[in-house]
Amino acid sequence: MASPKMQVSPRMISLEHLLLTGNTTALEAFWLDVAAHGAPLIEAIEGDDTHVLVTFLWRGHGNTHSVVVFIGPASWERPTDHQMTRLLDTDLWYKTYWLRADLRTTYEFSPNDPLTPIQYQEFWTRLVPDPLNTRHFTYPKDEEDPKAQDLVMSILELPQAPRQTWILPRPGVAQGQVERHRLRSQILDNERCIWVYTPPKYTKSSEPYRLLLLFDGGEYLHLVPTPTILDNLLHEGEIPPLVTVLIDTLGQTRNQELPCHQPFVDFLTQELLPWVYERYSVTHDPAQTTIAGSSYGGLAAAFAGLRASNFFGNVLSQSGQFQWNTDSETNIPQEWLTQQFITSPRVPVRFYLEAGLQEQGRLAATVPSNRHLRDVLALKGYEVHYAEFNGGHEFLCWRGSLADGLLNLIGHQSTHDLADVP
Predict the structure, then answer these.
(1) Domains defined along the chain, listed by start
(2) Which of 25, 97, 260, 368 is the most buried (most CB within 10 A)?
(3) What is its main location (predicted)?
(4) Which helix (H) or strand (E) holds 353?
């Protein structure tokens, strides 16, 4: 993400000059300004309206010998490339990046970092949020892990980041209801939570409602405020009333169930949907039924669309992992599901696909694999809308773009045109 162009903060140059010329109050004045306005520093670039300079800051102590930026504009694998610089012999450490002004991301710091690639379990021991930034995105801890903690990450949203219009409650907007259930699967031999959102004024005696199924249901309740998004869209008349089923994907089996697993599709069609049909007034029409998810959930949604198009006529995928292959021993993306779409007859399914331009590491193939699937679907005659956002593989981005997918697939004003190819 970083650019070879100028990555020097004018504020840092000015502050260093003041200190070198003997201004003894300049540093404390700088810290007071940061306390008042927050961090990171965001500075415009003369003659460049599409990029800004972003400077991350850390106030060190006597034992601080290094600070590393992780995630966000940094990588996971090369911490030595993202070390902060100490300003002279002061307590100020900083790192400046030249970034596109529409970036939305989270980031962390690692003070006195060992300069080795990050491991997932180290989030709770090695990384910390930015103490100078009050904007946080929190991943709740795994209740089944007694050692786990909430993962608190700092938010960076640059001036041109797309507005997340629908995610906050609005005064005067009627709220739907969410009911929590437990559902036992004989096919999968497990049990999970199922949350069902019904829109305001829902009645079981009314005409059948459209239906939306969402994987990773807990995350789409707490990290993506799905009920609030639906309430707002409905209040503005952007989408028709719908019932939404949020399906918990169990941590210990998620990576088996979601990646193109036929028994999981059988669970959806033979157990979950009959359960929903019996209890709620919902459509049986696949053209009015949408299946959705992110990451492996996006992959699972597209697989279900291919294998069960008589149930699911619309697929909404957020950063779907279409680079997935059936051989877990190789890291070579084989795009197994895309090959299935190539060799299978066209089925009556419409698609919304999106991917983040800053998905990194093992997720770096997300954008090219999504572009490839988009092209394959278009050539096969499918109706497909494709979008890219300047962000990473995270719910911070998906919470805003879920509405984009719904508007494209079921919105009253949707034209369903094929997006421009980047």
Answers:
(1) 10-157 (2.60.40.10), 177-410 (3.40.50.1820)
(2) 97
(3) cytoplasm
(4) strand 350-356
